């Protein structure tokens, strides 16, 4: 069996991403992708079994990049738990805002009816990766006496679900601006409520467990 060329795979992936964002996923064909790269259809199918597989690879790559940034923070032994959480959140939010257009376009693709199962698959993969890193911080906080929970894994899962409600609200505000009269107020109120919930679940000091700072949240909705 001929081995896949990682450089060629990445080239196809990059070309597909550009086309997805420029023309839309539905309006991009495999022929468009191979034409952009200058390879045969056989070469494409040697690396990806379908256009959907390219989309999955693109989103997976994005998730891995984000998690790599988080791992650099959770592995920093010089930080205690709460500063580590705060740094993780700050780095993650900065990474996302730098890729705002790409992330919004990806969310649009993921919310298409035909991508529901794919969206669930990717979210499960992302949640598992992030939950592992979040659990490390929670365990450290328990050991330091700043968090007070008995079941780390279950608590982490609950926190992920709570934070996801903020993510879902933010994405809907971004993708459907005409449905709301005051998106900023809605987002800020939801952000404050989620932060309070996280702090109470962990029994952490009030104001210590930010999810996203107000300035960055407003930038998502207004820039």
The low-confidence parts are none
Element pattern in H and E:
HHHHHHHHHH
Tally of helical runs: 10
Give the mean pLDDT: 88
* Rg over alpha carbons: 20 Å
* Number of self-contained structural domains: 2
The CATH superfamily of the largest domain bears the name: Tetracycline Repressor, domain 2
At the first level of CATH, the class of the largest domain is Mainly Alpha
Helix/strand layout:
Elements: H1 6-23, H2 30-37, H3 41-47, H4 51-74, H5 81-98, H6 100-110, H7 116-144, H8 152-175, H9 183-202, H10 214-222
Walk me through this protein's architecture.
- The structure is a single chain.
- The chain has 223 residues and is mainly α.
- The protein has 2 domains: 6-47, Arc Repressor Mutant, subunit A (Orthogonal Bundle); 58-222, Tetracycline Repressor, domain 2.
- Helices cover 75% and strands 0% of the residues.
- The chain is built from 10 helices and no strands.
- The chain has helices at 6-23, 30-37, 41-47, 51-74, 81-98, 100-110, 116-144, 152-175, 183-202, 214-222.
- Helix 1 (6-23) packs across helix 4 (51-74), helix 5 packs antiparallel against helix 7 and helix 7 packs across helix 8.
- The chain is globular, with a radius of gyration of 20 Å.
């Amino acid at each position: 069996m001929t081995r896949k060329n990682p450089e060629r795979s990445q080239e196809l992936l990059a070309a597909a991403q550009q086309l997805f964002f420029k023309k839309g996923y539905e309006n991009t064909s495999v022929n468009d992708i191979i034409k952009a790269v200058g390879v045969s259809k056989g070469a494409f199918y040697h690396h990806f079994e379908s256009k959907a597989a390219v989309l999955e690879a693109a989103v997976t790559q994005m998730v891995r990049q984000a998690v790599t940034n988080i791992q650099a923070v959770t592995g920093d032994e010089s930080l205690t738990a709460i500063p580590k959480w705060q740094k993780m959140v700050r780095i993650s939010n900065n990474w996302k805002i730098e890729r705002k257009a790409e992330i919004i376009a990806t969310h649009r693709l993921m919310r298409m009816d035909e991508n529901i199962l794919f969206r669930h698959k990717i979210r499960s993969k992302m949640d598992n990766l992030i939950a592992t890193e979040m659990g490390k911080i929670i365990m450290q906080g328990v050991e330091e006496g700043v968090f007070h929970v008995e079941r780390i894994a279950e608590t982490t899962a609950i926190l992920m679900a709570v934070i996801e409600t903020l993510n879902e609200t933010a994405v809907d505000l971004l993708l459907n601006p005409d449905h709301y009269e005051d998106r900023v107020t809605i987002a800020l109120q939801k952000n404050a409520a989620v932060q309070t919930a996280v702090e109470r679940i962990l029994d952490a000091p009030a104001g210590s467990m930010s999810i996203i700072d107000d300035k960055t949240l407003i930038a998502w909705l207004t820039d």
